[in-house]
Design brief:
With 518 residues, this protein is an alpha+beta fold. It has three domains: 194 residues, no CATH class; 128 residues, no CATH class; 73 residues, no CATH class. Helices cover 41% and strands 13% of the residues. It has 17 helices and 13 strands. Strands 3, 7, 8, 9, 10 and 11 form a six-stranded antiparallel sheet that branches. It has a three-stranded mixed sheet with strand order 1-2-4, with no helix packed on it. Strand 7 and strand 8 form a beta hairpin. The longest helix has 26 residues. It is globular and about 70 Å long. The two termini are 33 Å apart. The structure holds adenosine monophosphate and magnesium ion. The site of magnesium ion has 3 residues, from loops.
């Protein structure tokens, strides 16, 4: 028997529309609207995360039950579940977009697990809501599978993220124009269940500020601080300042973690920014193969590269500024918000140097390291060097006898390796001199570096292989990738899962370029 204990605080403590209506509309004065998932004809469980099932105190038998399948495909509600879609707005690609909201996400309530933790359940792709605008409320298998896998991979890398419990195909087609080239076709539909302590986004606050609904904004702020930030205390003035500072700090730490592993979110709009500092909304994201700070997997962003790897810190700050503008409507003074942004800058700076020190095996960051690190990043960009492979091989370099050949496997093109030997050789000499300045051994440096430089990342071509197989009904690749994702820092992986991007993947849609069509 699947049994949860619910405490649905978001809908119990915040105002909402109780009448169910699918009419797309602006929902003024409320935080959520009552809505039911739309049933599907032939749900099939493709994959689940045993770790997330554990968090929710679900047994293996529970997950494989008919009840589970019906509930997590959106066909029925379990006792205590209450379904709703929340209202939010957002800045998209630099402009205010007005009301957006859960257009294809449906909350099912907040589970309190046996450890007393709160985990909100949310279906994605379970049908239209008042926030669907012209969308169908559905999601295709390829994007659902990518979100399912990446949520769990991100968690195992130690990076804050929303989680994923289940991936269920609906048996119903969804029409999408994947490449936005006028070729719409039917694709298999899917529903995932996402799990997080809270799905609140920056855009949830922005919408009430934009509408002048300041009481509601204040109510949401109070609710969020008391439910999601119980450690923040102080007087009314201090609380808001401390809370915003904490949001800034978490956001800074999160974006540095993405840089550490070469993750590009792809659509860092304010509606895709979690107030808890979690990675949220996995769409046209990508993992860096050959290192290039200018790279973005999102074809919609191909022209301006607004959300490319290297610009992510700037864009996260920009998003925090938009949040600060919204909060200014209820803040006792603007300066407390400015202080928060300064704290973002300081945290970012400190966290980046700590992260880079760890990646390169330095025991302590020195100011001169900037040049050394920037130089190799420039070289890697020019010479098409695989980021993941490079840092794992760099850990194998012996300080007394640095051997460039060790790095050869990180290069995509043998001729470029040959033509860049001198540059990398010089750099390696400088690196070795730098290492000689610290009390260290090759062995302990290698161990330290391998704890922060993953061996396995969910490269786009790997996720695409899982999609191709799952489309034919074969879930073995999903399972293989889930297994590898559980131990991303281990050396123990089959060679096909840690191989650099193969030639065939360079121009294949889904492998190097992804659209927002999902
Ligand atoms: P995203 O680009 O996925 O972050 O989505 C931006 C907004 O569009 C959110 O409000 C989504 O709920 C909404 N949206 C995206 N796809 C759909 C869809 N197929 N049906 C309804 N709403 C959607
Ligand atoms: Mg989104």
């Amino acid at each position: 028997m699947v049994q949860f204990s619910f405490d649905n605080s978001f809908i119990n403590q915040l105002p909402g529309y109780h009448e169910v209506s699918l009419r797309p509309r602006q929902t003024h004065g409320v935080c959520w609207s009552k809505i039911f998932p739309t049933p599907v004809s032939k749900p099939t469980l493709l994959a689940f995360s045993s770790e997330v099932a554990n968090l929710l105190n679900l047994s293996d038998e529970d997950v494989h039950s008919e009840e589970f399948l019906e509930a997590f495909s959106g066909n029925s509600l379990l006792p205590g579940m209450e379904s709703y879609a929340t209202c939010y707005g957002g800045h998209q690609f630099g402009s205010w977009a007005g009301q957006l909201g859960d257009g294809r996400a449906i909350g099912l309530g907040e589970v309190i697990n046996s450890a007393g933790e709160r985990w909100e359940l949310q279906l994605k792709g379970a049908g239209p809501t008042p926030y669907s605008r012209r969308g169908d409320g559905r999601a295709v298998l390829r994007s659902s599978l990518r979100e399912f896998l990446c949520s769990e991979a991100m968690h195992h890398l130690g990076i804050p993220t929303t989680r994923a419990l289940s991936l269920i195909t609906t048996g119903e087609p969804v029409i999408r124009d994947m490449l936005y080239d006028g070729n719409s076709k039917a694709e298999p539909g899917a529903v995932i269940c996402r799990v997080a302590p809270s799905f609140t986004r920056f855009g949830h606050f922005e919408i009430y500020a934009a509408r002048g609904e300041y009481d509601l904004l204040q109510q949401l702020v109070n609710f969020t601080i008391s439910r999601d930030f119980p450690n923040i205390t102080g007087s009314q003035t201090e609380i808001l300042a401390n809370w915003f500072r904490e949001v800034c700090e978490r956001s800074a730490r999160l974006v540095v973690e993405w840089l550490r592993v070469g993750f590009v979110h792809g659509v860092l709009n304010t509606d895709n920014m979690s107030i808890l500092g979690l990675t949220i909304d996995f769409g046209p994201y990508g993992w860096m193969d050959n290192f290039d700070p200018n790279w973005t997997p999102n074809t919609t962003d191909a022209e301006f590269h607004r959300y490319c790897l290297g610009k992510q810190p700037k864009v996260v700050r920009w998003n925090l500024e938009r949040l600060a503008e919204a909060l200014a409507r209820v803040a006792p003074s603007k300066s407390i918000l400015e202080d928060g942004l300064v704290h973002f800058d300081e945290t970012l700076q400190n966290t980046i140097t700590t992260m880079l020190s760890a990646k390169f095996g330095f025991l302590k960051w020195q100011d001169e390291d900037v040049d050394l690190v920037n130089l190799v990043f420039e070289l890697m960009t020019k010479a098409e060097v695989d980021m993941t492979e490079f840092f794992r091989r760099l850990a194998d370099i012996k300080q007394h006898s640095p051997n460039l050949e060790i790095l050869r496997s990180a290069f995509y093109q043998p001729d470029i390796y040959e033509s860049h030997r001198a540059f990398f050789g010089n750099w390696l000499q400088r690196y070795s001199t730098r290492l000689s300045m610290q009390e260290d051994t090759d062995g302990s440096r290698r161990l330290r570096m391998n704890l922060v430089n993953p061996r396995f990342v969910l490269r786009n071509y790997l996720a695409q292989q899982a999609i191709d197989a799952a489309t034919l009904g074969d879930t073995s690749v999903i399972e293989k990738l889930m297994e590898a994702a559980r131990n991303p820092y281990s050396d123990n992986h089959s060679s096909d899962l840690i191989a650099k991007r193969p030639e065939w993947a360079i121009n294949k849609p889904g492998c190097s370029m992804l659209s927002c069509s999902s």
